Every structure is written in structure tokens, then in C-alpha cells.
Protein 1
Amino acid sequence: MDLNSTNMKKIAMLIVFAAIVFLIGLHFPKIITYLLYIFSIFTPLILGFCIAFVLNVFMRSIENVWGKFLKKDSKLKRPLSLILTLFFVFLVIFIVMFLIIPEISRTISTIVELFPSYINTLEKNINAFVETNSIGYIDLSSLSVDFEKMADSVAAFISNSSESFFNATLNVTTSIFNTFFNILLGFILSLYMLVHKEKLCRHLKKLLYAYVKKERVEKILNVTDLSNRVFSKFVTGQMLEAVLIGLMCFTGMVILQLPYAAMISTLVGFTSLIPVVGALFGTAVGALLIFLVNPIQAVWFILFIIVMNQTENNLIYPKLMGKTMGLPGIWVLVAVIIGGRLYGIIGMLISVPLCSVLYILLRDEVNRRLRGSTFEDIEEI
């Protein structure tokens, strides 16, 4: 190879890259610690951006309605739209809490009151089964528990681990305070972002054009626009879908005269925000609560949810999402599983639109590369 200036630059770049990789591998734990520390510093900013993005979906709709009936250049447009958005969001949260908490309290009280009868019924069913199969008789009442010994063991455990318990309590309290403080700062930052969103977008664009080549800036802006459309469509669609599913579930349960209609419908609607697995979780909890009251009604509830989900998957979801969420079903499931394993419920929520953006970008790039090649007769992805 000719050792001209171009090749020398390439060799130098390879040496620098290899040295950087070596240093990263050598100090990997420290680097991760520093990155987590930096991430914790920017946590309020990240939370503020996420809150602003979700609130902007509603505020933009209010502003569009405002423009149809009132002057578009009114100075009251932005602050009133923001106030209406916050009012709507807090009203929804209040209604949900007002429906769920009393119902959960009443359900727990009912289960506690009826628990002895559940045990007696379970004992009769088990004994009937074992008697039929000649296994023998089981008397659950013969099981004795030494509560005094159990209490002494618990007291000894608490006494021996009081220091660690205090430290754990202090850590949990500190973590809760930090989380609350970050959410509060994030909420304040989100309000500023929403009020001055056009100015912030202009500043970011000027910054990109000042330090990045124009072609790359155009690509970045295209990806940003695609991400905004996909995430906005996902947030709007999931919210509307949750409301519709909750109303459909409540109406069906009232018609079928099933218990806990308000609480279970709210739970099913909220869990449907999580694609694929959310509906299964809400159905399982609802069926369990109804089963404790009437097992036959639990079967009817499951059959009703199956019919409702088929209606939602074939009629409601395609209308709400359209072709924007062009992610095949198998990849939706994979995205939810991976997102849940990495970041829990939040990961489940953001994994689908994120993977949709990546899928659309990869699909367009693959189809572009195949055009004019020997594979041009293959159907596009």
C-alpha cells in the first residue's frame, strides 16, 4: 500500500479508534458509572421533553380547533390552549383515581369478608375430588400455625436487621424524593417547552445547520419528522383506543350484569395502552375478581373480552392507527417483550413506536437499494 497522505490519515484513524476501544474496554465499569451520573443530571430535561411531547399532542388538537373558530394570531391562543390541555389531563387523572381507588378498596373488603367461605368451598371441592379418585380426605382445619413462634421469629429478624432496614428505608425515601423532584422539574420544563416550542425548534435547526453538513441535516430532519408523526399517531391512537375499549367493556359488563363493571372496565382500558400484553393482564385480573364472586360469570366475561378484542383488532385499531404504525404483528410482540425486559412498563409503551420508526427507515432503505438490481421483481417489504 502506498503511504501517501490519504492512507496515512486512514492508518492514524484506525490506530486512534483501536486505542479508544481498548481504553473503553479497560475502564468500562467506570465509564458506565460516569454515563449513568450524566444521565441522572439530565433526567429532568428528558422527563420534561417526554411530558411536553405527550401534552403537545392534545394542545396541538386544541389549537387546530381554535384556529377554525377564532383568530389564529390571537395572543391568548397558546396560553389558553395550554391551560385547557392541563385541565383535560388532570381531569382524566382525577376521574380515573376516583373510579379505581374506591372500587379497589371495596373489592379488597369484599374479598376479606368472603375469604372464609372461599376456603370452605375450596375444601369441599378438593375433598370431593380426592374422595372420587380414592386419594383420601384432606382436612384443612387440622393445619395448625404457631402464631407466637412466628411473631418471635419476625421480631428477632427485625431486631437483627434493624440497621439494614433503616438504611433501606432511608434509600427508598431518598429515591422517592428525588423522583418526585425530577418529575416536578420536568413538568416545569415541559411548560416552558410548550410555550416556546417554535423558538426552540428554530434554535436547534440553526445549531444543526451551523455545525453539520446540509445533506446530513436534511436526513436528520426527515427522521425527526417521521418520528414525530409516528409517536404522535401512537399516543393519540392508544389514548382513543383505551377510552373506546373502556366504554365498550363497561357497556358490555352492564348488559351482562357482571360485577365490578366500573373498576374492571377502567383497568382493561388502561392496560390496553400497553400493546399485546396489556389486554391479557387486564382480562386476567378482571376474570379473577369476577371468579371470586361467580365462576360462571367469569367465563362469560372472558368470552365477552375475546369478542371485544376481535372487534377492536379488526375494526377500531386499523382506523385509529392507519398505515403509520406499519409494524408487522410479530415485531410488535418482540418490541413489547424487549422493551419490557429493559425498561418495564415505560419500555413497553415506547418500544412499539420506536421500532416502527426503525422498521420504516430500514424498509425504505432496503427497497431503495433493491431498485434497479436483479431483485427488482421482488415485492417491496
Protein 2
Amino acid sequence: MPLENYHFKPTGLLTNKHIQSILASSKARKWFLRRQSSSLREHQRSLLLECGDGVRLHALHSPQPRSSSNPDLAKNNSKLVILIHGWEGSAESTYLLSTASSLFNKGYSILRLHLRDHGPSANLNEDLFHAARLDEIAGAIRNIKTRLPYQTYSLVGFSLGGNIALRISQRSEQERLQLSSVTAISPVISPSDTMDALNSGLAIYRLYFTKKWKRALRAKQRYFPEKYDLSELISKQNLGDMTDQLVENHTPYPSVAEYFSQYTLQPSGFTELNTNTYIIMAKDDPVIPKAGFSGFENSEKLKVYSYANGGHCGFIKNWKLDCWLDEALPKVL
């Protein structure tokens, strides 16, 4: 059944956008994933990826241990799926672990890529992470393809990782990445709109991202005490003020507006894609306003799947906390 005919229709409390969004990253749901993710974890190994210009990124690679006698699994043995988490997430984020382990159990090999300064990687690069750093992601994919021989390579990103995946799709031919597909889940379309949504929405989202960002900044300062005194940045009480100072002191951009423009996605940027590209989004996403998707239309290489419910990276289909994405994604890989 193609994804066009495979709908997400939760019922009851699971139609609530905040319940969906909170469950996406909940520790309770991760507890339920212990058995599902055991094989993925058993076979994972750490990789340091050389991305060009001295940049290194960290990843966890879980190769399939052997060809399966099960034909439904064996057909996926030669396929690598590269997964990118969202801002201040990691390879261990619940939503990403769910998808990674489900795909691994279906026969795919998995690589969970950490963005700069995310997960255990604060010590790898001296300069701070910001969302406009796309060259190193393209470099990481090239290094993956050189070191890990597979027949096909697919890229899946969540939230900010979805934004990055879509920008990689735009540059895929230029960078000669030859990806078989790119899929973005709840992608950031307009960072300014997302910032507005965070500032005007429930405080739980602002507090979540502020806490995690400050924790990452403290880790960076511990590894590079001679370069950084981030105490003023960490002392800021809201995401807007923190972003203002990040841009002013730690990016080459003269303003937040110019910085945001580096990763704002426009429909006009998707008219000449060479890679099969998919967007999966929920109209009730409390972090990514649906208005940002205006003008994004289906074409030969771009397919947009928009659902009434799902929240931000949620798509939880029942109270066993099973995720609809885990069944849907193989239809676009």
C-alpha cells in the first residue's frame, strides 16, 4: 500500500497535539522501546566521520549482522538509512530511537548521525554548533558512503534534522551524494515562525529547549575553557535573547534575520530536485506552524503528506505508544 493510502487517524486523547508532542520524546515511551531497540544497540558501533575542513562528527552505525533467510528482511540488507535528530536531540532521542530500531528490525542497516555538539560530541570541534552549518553534513554523508558500502543510502531527519535533510536534498546533485530518498518529519520550514510559536505557545516547550541548550553550552565550555566564557549567553532567560547573542558572538551573520535566512525553506527551492523527497507533517504541530507549508506542492520529486493530527514528531497511534511512522517510513525508503 503506498503512503498516499496509508493514513494516520488517532482517536480520543491521542488527537491532542500536546500529548502527541510530549510522547514523542517521553522517557516512559523509551522504557517501552527497550526490547524493540535491543538488537539495534547490540550491533551499534561508534564512528568518527571526517567531514572536511577538519570537522569531525560522531555517529552510531548499526549494520545488519548477516543476510537474513527471511525474504522480507533480506531485501533491505543492502540499504543504509541515515537518521538525523532534532535540535538538542541525539541518537538516543525517543522518537529517533523508535524509528531506528523499527527499521533495523525490518532488515535495514542504520546510521544515527549526531549534529555538531549534540550527543557525546561537544569535544570534537572547537566552534559552536549553529543551524547554518550544512557543508559538514554533506561531508559526513560523503564520508559515510566512502567507508560504508551499501547499494542505497536514504536520509531521514526530524524537526531541525528534517530541515537539514531537505536542504541536503536541494544540494544532492551538486554534492554528488546520490541518495535514493530524503524524508523530513515535522521539518522546520521558517525558523522565525518556529521561534514565534515557541515564544507564544506552552511554556513546557520553551523550558525544554532552553534547559537542553544551556546544558550543551556548559559542556562546550568545559571542553574549551580557554576559548569560551559562555556565562552571559547561559544567563539569558529566553530563546530569543540567547539566539541574539549566539548570532552576534558566534556566527558570521550580521543579524538574526540574516542567520534565519540561511535555513529558511522556500517552495521555489524545490522545483528542480533530483532526489525523491518526502515531507511528513501534522497540521496541529505546536512548534512548526502549518502556514509555513503554504506553497509546497507535490511534484515529480517532492511529495508532501499532511495529516490533521500528530503533533511535533509524534504520530503515536495507540496507548501501547506504538508510532505510525515506524510502519509508514519503509513505504518511502
Protein 3
Amino acid sequence: MKRFARTLSVAAVTLTVGTGLAMAGGATVKSRQIQQQRRIAQGARSGELTRPEARRLERNAAAIHRSVRRDRIDGGVFARRERAKAQRRLNQQSRAIYRQKHDGQPK
């Protein structure tokens, strides 16, 4: 009986972890977008980003968001290639946010 319970619990954990990893693939793009929005807002509040810098970063973030939505609508599935493209654009956006926040402009 203990062996059966142990096997059942291992199967349940494996199923839970596998489901979580499968769901994380689609959620990473959205969670990165949200985090980058927070970074832009925080930079604008603290004065690290000027208004034109913040606007430019927001416009770029909106363009990425539209692109992701369009990719998901076209095929109904967010394919590996589309996800890779979105991740590359989010990486570029992240670097741009960092550069603008740390460019040494007076606050």
C-alpha cells in the first residue's frame, strides 16, 4: 500500500510540475511585458527617465504588445518562432530601459 501511495504522489508531482512548465511558456511573454511596464513607470516616477524617454519606451512596449496579440490571433497558437521573436524584442526593450535609466542625465 505504501508503494502505491508513493507512486501516486510521484505521479501527481510530475503532472503538476509538467503542467506548470507548459503554462509558463505562454505566460513568460506577458509577465515580462508587465515587469517592463513597471520598470518604465518606476523610472518615470523617480526621475531616472525623462518624459520623452518614457514616452518612447512606452510606444515601443505598445508596439511589442500589438505584435504579440496579432501573432496569437493569426494562428490561434503562439508558435515557437513567434515566441522567440517576442522574446528578442523584449530583450531589446529591456536593454533600452536599462540604458535610458542609467544614462547619467540629471534628475
